[in-house]
Amino acid sequence: MHFATEEEQIAKFEADEITQTYLDILRTLIAKKSIFAQQIGLKETARYLGEIFRQAGAEVEVDESYTAPFVIARFRSSNPAAKTVIFYQHYDTVPADGDQVWTADPFHLSIRDGLMVGRGVDDDKGHITARLTAVQKYLAAKKELPVHVTFIMEGAEESASTDLDNYLNKHKKSLRGADLLVWEQGTKNPKGQLEISGGNKGIVTFDVRVKSADVDIHSSYGGVIDSAAWYLINALTSLRSPDGRILVEGLYEKIIPPNARELELVERYASRTAEEFKAIYGLELPVLKEERQALLRRLFFEPSINIEGISSGYQGQGVKTILPAEASAKMEVRLVPGLEPHKVLEQIQAQLVKNGFEHVEVVYTLGEKSYRSDMSAPSIVNVVQLAEQFYEKGISLLPTTIGTGPMHTVYEALEVPMAAFGLGNANSRDHGGDENVTIADYYTHIELIEALIASYEE
């Protein structure tokens, strides 16, 4: 079997008229700042997508019921027995502000050194145009689709998919019954294997606050008066063992354990190691789980509690001898199947009270449930077999990722087998400066999606 080289893929990319047409559309998409967190560009970008898909021949609905419009674009097959493939996408991005280093304007698509660089080129606007390109290439060659193809595109994925459940509840009757849903994006791992995954962790985020007095107190009283800072530190420490296990009674009993196939997939395909983390991040503290099986089980199948940020007292120049009257922290728990965000937060609050820290105020901020698949659905097996024809280093098949997204929300509404795979690479820098994809990976993804469509031919 011949696998195309990077040079061959770049040459095909440059010579392909349809690909170049939609590359111009990607340029326009990236130039449109559509950032839910900043409440900018959402309606404009949704309406632009609606127009692009109409021009491509789709039946389009732009539902503006909520802050970020929901875009549905349907390409119909004339075959009365045709199945349906859904592409779930999002058109919002995270910001690209001054806290990040970019070598060029993040909202201008740069093409250089075999890379395409810009905010959203991987997460997730590049996936929208690549998949639409594949549909158009198939139609140009065959005139008719063998399968119904539906794109659903939301605009709040980077902000916990606000209102997605409402949109899906409203439209689920017309969207249910699909053979496969292809998730927003995916990547190649450091080994060059295409990762195909079937789930993600959930999350609950929350703030914790302590007020110990009306004013900061002179620190000479520190031997007899508690401070908000010490109180909060001790409270948080009581929720986690030194090896990272969550110390909340009854939490682990609610977890749905992985089945034998899910365990086997992670054992076979997961590439994460303690040594890899040390090399990538320059770790100076010990890894909590060094042994491979224990590390993988914690990463993929167990929850974790994390401090995102903590604040208390004086942080200026020199010293200020006080007992801080207030302390706060931003927290999260990464969830696995069986754990519901609000219920987990109730358990944490109860555990703090039981541990003697009833003065900690716990405030919910956002939450998403988790989803996991053993990847045995026939439509997912079909994706795996197709992908093996395009990636020389092979594939990595995982029942879940260690990240978070609204997979559970989508599955609960649509009840469809889901697989995440895409055009990213191990250094695509999603959410960071110089977000990028390679031209070769972009074009290979187009070819894979075109082959997926073709696989539904009778």
Can you walk me through this structure?
With 458 residues, this protein is α/β, with parallel strands linked by helices. It folds into two domains: 279 residues, Zn peptidases (Aminopeptidase, 3-Layer(aba) Sandwich); 121 residues, Alpha-Beta Plaits, CATH 3.30.70. Helix content is 34%, strand content 19%. A six-stranded mixed beta sheet has the order 1-2-6-3-7-16, sandwiched between helices. Strands 11-13-9-14 form a four-stranded antiparallel beta sheet, with helices on one face. Strands 4-5-17 form a three-stranded antiparallel beta sheet. The protein is globular and about 80 Å long. The two termini are 24 Å apart.
Brief account:
With 458 residues, the protein is α/β, with parallel strands linked by helices.
